[in-house]
Amino acid sequence: MKRKGFTLLELLVVIIIVGVLATLGFQQYARVIEKSRGAEARAVLGSIRTSAAGHYLEHRALTGFNDDNAGIGAAADQIPSACRGSNYFSYGVNATGDTLTGTATRCTASGKTPDASTAFTLTLTSDFATGSDAWASDFGY
Hints:
Layout: H1 8-59, H2 67-70, E1 72-73, E2 79-80, E3 89-96, E4 99-106, E5 121-127, E6 132-137
Parallel strand pairs: 1-2
Antiparallel strand pairs: 3-4, 4-5, 5-6
């Protein structure tokens, strides 16, 4: 009489293969999710750039443009200057002459969960004299 079914060895091989594929898939999934969180930072940095453009048009320079002008601060209705439970990033600006540099830093503690293991950054540099914008990131946001 012939038995139908799988041997223990065949089942173990299949389980190992599925485990390896699941591990690889989870790593890719986590990376894609983290990159999607960068959309928050891009939107906020774009908003900061818009505020800076208004300041530049009014004063013909970015002198005096700072976190307060950009709406960055500690209040609940402001763009967060430090990590807090409602955002994945904290933000800051540096304006000199015609150039604005806005930086979003991924929270490693006290941010919206899950926190990142590394404080990755996304930077927008806008030169209002030439009208050019440049994005830079150390994660791929």
